[in-house]
Amino acid sequence: MKRVIAALLLIAGPVNAQVSSTAAPVANSSGSVTNQAVQVVPARQFTNTYGSGISCQGTTLSINPFISSTTGWAQPYERYYNEPVYDTLDLVGAFDPEGNPVPDGRPDNPGNILFHKPMRTGQKTNLSINGGITATISIPLDRHHVRTCRKAAEKQVALLDATLADKRLNYEIARIKNCASLMKDGIMFHPKSPYSKICADVVLVNPPGVLPSHIHSIPTSSETSENADAANQTQ
After folding, report:
1. pLDDT at 19 over 50
2. 3-state secondary structure of 191
3. Please, which of 138, 154, 187, 208 could form a disulfide with 60 given CB 3.0 to 4.6 Å?
4. Mind listing the pLDDT tens digit for each residue in 99-122?
5. What is the mean pLDDT of residues 116-139?
6. Which of the four pLDDT bands, split at 50, 70 and 90, describes residue 23?
7. What letter does residue 103 receive in the DSSP assignment?
8. pLDDT for res 216
9. In angstroms, how far is CA 47 from the centroid of its own chain?
10. Is the distance from CB of 111 to CB of 165 less than 8 angstroms?
11. 125: Cβ contacts below 8 Å, ≥ 6 apart
């Protein structure tokens, strides 16, 4: 019976407990992330045109240097702010078994500000400058088309060379004919004229009215007597 009464007293008896609370440290972190991207636009391939609608594309290497900058700041700008320091004094609020006042874990003057403590904000202007080089290379995938185009380009160049040679020949023939015609008429550029070079290499051979050069042999007196003696002996 005594044991049962003791157990009930333990369960129903008043209990005085002293509770103390300690503020746990709190860490706050903040930051910002700026993402920058550089767009690389494929450049047009180099195209070589040879006339008659023939144009060939080749491998193209494009190098593009770039530079970019970023500036960030906070408004309003505050270097420091005043952080209130509260009164956390806890002396009364509860009683011990002997009736003396003891702390109860709560501030005696909640909300009471003792003073303000200046805190540095850490605000600053952020400036970043980034630079680099982008490179792209473009290669035609249809190699058969490129080879065929090059063959056509070579033939077109040969055709242009032949056309140029033909026009050059026509020009030289017309020049020599005109120069010879003027020479026959006795018309020539003055040697000091800047245009005298046009007909400088034209040579007029056997102009009209001039016979070709020839030689006649004239027998002497001795040759005549020898010829006469030989004729008499033959008779």
Report:
1. no
2. coil
3. 138
4. 888 888 888 888 899 999 999 988
5. 86
6. very low
7. E
8. 56
9. 18
10. no
11. 71, 72, 73
Whole-angstrom distance, CA of residue 18 vs CA of residue 12? 19
72: tokens are 């960030």
Backbone angles phi and psi of 69, in degrees to 5: -135, 150
As a whole number, the mean pLDDT across the chain is 77
Structure-token match 């770039």, residue found: 66
End-to-end CA distance of the chain: 206
Structure tokens belonging to residue 123: 């605000």
Classify 20 as helix, strand or coil: coil
Give the H/E segment covering residue 189.
none
Half-sphere exposure of 37 (CA within 13 A, CB side): 3
On whether the CB atoms of residues 66 and 132 are closer than 8 A, the answer is yes
Identify the three-state secondary structure at position 88. coil
